[in-house]
From TrEMBL:
Residues 97-195 form the HTH araC/xylS-type domain. Keywords: DNA-binding, Transcription, Transcription regulation. This is AraC family transcriptional regulator. It holds the Pfam family HTH_18. SMART domains: HTH_ARAC. GO terms for molecular function: DNA-binding transcription factor activity; sequence-specific DNA binding. PANTHER family: HTH-TYPE TRANSCRIPTIONAL ACTIVATOR RHAS-RELATED (PTHR46796), TRANSCRIPTIONAL REGULATORY PROTEIN (PTHR46796:SF14).
Amino acid sequence: MQAPLQTPTRPVSFLPPPPAPLPHVAPWDDRRIVTLVSAAQAALDHDLERARGCLDQLAALLDGTEKPPVDEAILLPTARATETGANKGGLAPWQLRCVMGHIQANLAQPLPVDQLAALANLSTNHFTRAFRASVGETPHTYVVKRRVRQAQILMLTTDQPLSEIAYGCGMADQAHLTRLFRQFVGETPLRWRRTWRRPTHSRDN
């Protein structure tokens, strides 16, 4: 009687499974990784929401799922009003909301300090002191930095030439944008845009 055929058994392997491949990060992302980590560390003590956002973007970048058009960490930081500002000669909450909302909605328009003071029902000198007590910088500096930040967002998310972006953010011309951008960001708008903008058909001029 013929013996039944036996199915050969596979040798049992005691080797651990191969490690998962490391996430691929393109060389141009190296600077973004450093920036996100640095921004998260800087924000840990005073702005947990910003720190968390930077870490979320870093995780998304490393696992290849990052898709947001703008990295908060590479934008010019915005000044935040102190919660105790009103107790130290600062603006009342309703005054801050009114003034800051007006600034953000009218960045392309002239924003003289006396106009902002009128929104808060204060004299120009009183308003300037109170705004600085609440925000930590003068109204003029705050407006300029908001314009530069808005220009950064447009540089990353649109194909507009820098001359149009400058005008749309309330600056006289591209040279004006370049001067302010150097002052607050540390490099020219054209160089910054080429560094951080995803490959696209940009029309810088």
